[in-house]
Structure formats: C-alpha cells, structure tokens
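Pair request: fold both.
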Amino acid sequence: MTLTMIRFGDIRPILDSVARSGVSVEQLPSLRSFLDASDGIEDSAKLTITDYFRIQRDIALAFDDLTAQLSDRKLTYKTGHFVVSQLQNAPNLHGAIVSLVEHFNMMHGDAYNSVRLTEDRVSFVVDDSSFPYRFRDNERLVQFIGDCLMIKVHCLLDSLSNGIASKALRRIRLQRKRTAPAELQNAFWSVPIDYDHPTYEAIYDFDIACRPFDVPDRLDLTTDGLFARVIAYLEQSDPSRQSQSMTTRTLDVIEHDWVTQSDVAEQLGISVATHRRRLREEGVSFRDLIVKTRLVRAESMLRKGYTISQITGELEYSDIRAFNRAFKRWKGLTPAEYAKHAQAGK
C-alpha cells in the first residue's frame, strides 16, 4: 500500500480557520518539523495522509473537539470515548460496523451513516450531503475530508478486528470524480474504487465480516487514543515508513500511551540500545520526548480549564512546583499565566 500524498494548500483553509479561532498554527506539534525546516510551508509542499491525521489530532486536542474543527457542530472527547468503547462489545466486523454507524449517528445527531446489506456484502455508508461542514462551499476540500473519513473508519475497524477488515474489504466508493486533480487521487486503497458516487461506501465480504474476533487487550479509548491508533496503523502499513525520523515515530507511539522506552522500542521493532542511539543521532533523548508530550498535553488541559492541581496529578508530576518549573521552561510563562492568556483569548 502506498499512502496518499496531498498538497499543503489543500488543507490551508482548515489551518486558517484554526488561526481565526485563536490557536497559533505554529504551535501545533505536527507542523513544527515542517516550519523548522523553512520560513513557512509552501502550498505546493507535500504531506502524507499520516501527516494530515497528525494535524487533525493536534487540532482536536487544542479545541477539545472530536471533529477537529471540520464541523460547525462541536463534539466532545467523552462522546468519542463512548463511541469507540461500544466497539469492544462487537463480536465480529459486522457487529462493529453496525455499532459504529449507530453511535456515529447518535454522536452527530442525525442519520448520516447507515449499513447496507446484500446477499454477500455488508457496507458502511456515509451520506454527508447535509452534514454541517465548516467548509461546505469548498467542494474540493469537503471531498478530501470525506476521503479521509473513509480511511479513518477502515483503519479503526481493521486495527480493532486484528486485520479482518482488510481481508474482508472488496470495494470503495467515493464522491469525487476520477478526473480530480492528481494530488487527490487516493493511493491508499488496494481494492477497486468507484468514483462520482452519491455516497461514500466501504464494502466488505459478509462471510468474512461475520468471523469472530477478540478486541486487543490494551485499548486506549480516548479520542487522542483513536487518532493515535489510526496514525500507528498507517505508519505500520506505509512501505516508506523507515524514511520517517525516529523522533516522529517515537512520538506517535508515545501518543498511543506507551510510555516506557522498552515498550516503545518493542512497538518500533528495534532494541532499546538501537532506539537510544537513533534518537541521540537526531539530537534528542527519550526523556526529552516524554517531557515534550506531557507539556503539550498540559497546554491543552490548561486551555480546557483544568486546575494546576488536576494537571499535576494527571500527568504524574511529583508536585505542583515541579510542574510549574517544567512548564515555565517550556513556554516562558507559568501555568497560571498561560491559562489566564488562554482564557482571555477565547
């Protein structure tokens, strides 16, 4: 599988909207590596679909919004936790599809999703013709968002079903035309694609979809965990994965709630010694990345109104003074000062 490449210009309207809502795009961790490499990001710059989901995750964290500012109707993280947690009760892929459809509709407050059954197929169907997209007047962007939604749904189903979804997938239907610009042509799918369709559909073999499966024991059900699962799945499926920096790959695993170096190295398929050496070659340490991840989460929690005491406990700092010192080194402001500025900007 080859991951789709997109132009940065295709998602610039999303980032412009984020900036207008009061969040500095330069502070999104997923964009820092691009910005550090140049004075800015040209519209012609290429991103992978994995990069796009990293950006989505950062926006979702910044706004505490499951839709990552793509919808005019904000959803909360606890809602996302509820939806994903229901999948744990699904006995098979068919059940997971039904559960996801039902709870997505409950979450969004309308029947945008449905299940289509034929004699030998079961389909996850998305009809977003009336969905409250923030960018409804930008057809190109809306169709790209729809493409990415289908990738996210399939990645989630496949990771939770231990690969059964990929074995069962038979066809994909997308709304855009086959003649869409090359950067929107989707190299993710390894099955036939029907273009110019009125709805989005992921079509699975019914018999395979009815095979029982066990949900993985270690499952992060937060929305952050959902994005991390999709990103990790894409990274593992990308034949060019080895070209990613060890720092980026490590941060992705840490975001998936693996916080010891031995666990992270195991997830990356390398020894602890090799992991330590590769990070050192890139000028960072594992501890640096753990600290960075905790402080980025602290920023998000402060913007959401958590108290300093709550954050200190949640992020497992030894005491409030230790958290205050670490945060001030990171942002140049105390947590209280940062929270005051964040609240004033809303």
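--- second member of the pair ---
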Amino acid sequence: MSHSHASWTCLRIVGPDSRQFLQGQLTNDVEQVTSGQAGLFALCNPKGRVLANFLLAVPPDAGRDELLFVLPSDAQEILANTLAKYIVFSKAELQSSCGWLAHTGLLERSTQNLPAGQDFACVAGQDGLLLRLQATRDELLWLAHQASPQPPGWQALDEQAWLLAIIRSGLGFVSSATSDQFLPQMLNMDLNKGVSFTKGCYTGQEIVARAKYRGQVKRRMYRLLLDSAIPPAPGSAVQTNSKSVGTVVLSAKNEAGQCELLAVLSNSSTDGALHIGQNSLTLLDLPYPVNEQL
C-alpha cells in the first residue's frame, strides 16, 4: 500500500489574529470555516494571479484561532513563504512541520457521519478530521497527527486515484509549475465556492472583482481526455493546430489507462481540435456548468 499522505500536506496557523490576518489575504470568507465546514481558498499576488490554492479547515478540539491549510505538497513552500512576508505584523504563527498529515482515501458512507448535500463538509473523528471533497463524491481526506490510527474501514487511495477524484470534481489546484499564472476564475474557483465577492479587501481583490464585473474571463478550466497513457506534467501546453491555447493544471491516469486532465483554455479554442504533442484531446463534462458569458 502506498503512503497516501505524500502528495498532500498540512500547514497550521495559530494565534489570536489568525482569521483576521487570513481575511486580508485570501479570496474567500474565512468566517465561513467552522468545525463542520471547510472551504476552498486561494492566495493571490497583487495582480490577482493564484500563487496557491487549498482547503482550509478547523482541526478537532481547536479554538477559533487555529486553522489547517490542506494542499498539494508541491505548493506548500510558495504558500508558506508568501504568507511569512506579511504575518510578521500579526499575532499569528505559521507552522510548516505541524505534525498533521493529510491521508487520502475512501470510507463506507454509513460510517462517515458527514452531512448530506454539502461540499467540503467535515466531521471530527476520535483522532482526526474527516473532510469530503464534494457532496456527490466518496473521496475523503483524513487529517490526523502522525501516530493517529486511521478510521475503521479506511481504504487508502494512491496519488493517481486521488488526483483523478480531484480532476473529476473540477477542482484545479496549482503547483509550483502553474503558480502565478491564473486568475481564480480561470481555475473555476468562483464556480466552486472558492471566491467571495462580498467579503471585502484581500490581496489581488480589485483585479479578481474587475474580471467578474467586466466579463473579462476569456479563459476557463476544462476537463479533457487525452489519448495517451502518460499524464502530461502540470504546465504542459495544450495546442490547436500548432498554436498554444492553454495549460495543463492537473492530470492523472484513469481506470481505462488513458489520461484525464484539467486545463485552462481560451474559451474560443474549445470548438477546435485540441492536442498535447501528438495526442488528441476530447472535452469531458465537469460537475458544474462552465459558462463563457459569466
């Protein structure tokens, strides 16, 4: 069995100013994160480009002032380094080696105790926190300390299976290869409850808001099937004819031995023949409508 926590990791923030500090940095409303509800967030640069995006959750038995970031390991350093520049003025501390691990897996629905119909729902177990990606899916994160036992009946998912679940959920998480390239809307974060347009100022907010109100989102994230058994790396170019029209965000091998991926594409290119290298691409559905006229 592979160690399922290698691909995702946890960062902890603690201190009386934690929420207030994050509220001025992140795309979504930190006050919405409770012991039963995690959320999707991004940290942007002043130009509104996503440096890192992640889930934010309250660890079990924590007060209001403690939160966990859950994200791809590859993006942890960018997130930590960027927040570290600003956090010095706050009564809050960021801890990279915080002892929390993110395990990916499955659990029988009857034993989950998670509320129905709620994306990013979570529930505290005896030794950790269970977090579900989407109400309609079965894949879960189990956030726990190093020595904590896994929940009874836990089935670990390897990295490919977990990536596939994220891709099918239409959640585009950036990595070091794709950091600093996309507005949150290009990653469909506004369609995934990852952006609040009412919470007030945060880094990059003016540009993110302007893109919404002026209808400037000319690129969106799409799910595609690649006719190849080798998943292209994040940052790979998607082409039509031989012109680059987009960028791979995530890719994984599916059950049939082909690759599914999320890529940010110019909306006008989705009518044409798309390919990566010599391999052709076919558009697949996402669990939410991607409307170019938003």
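Observation on the second member. The CA atoms of residues 104 and 138 lie 11 Å apart.
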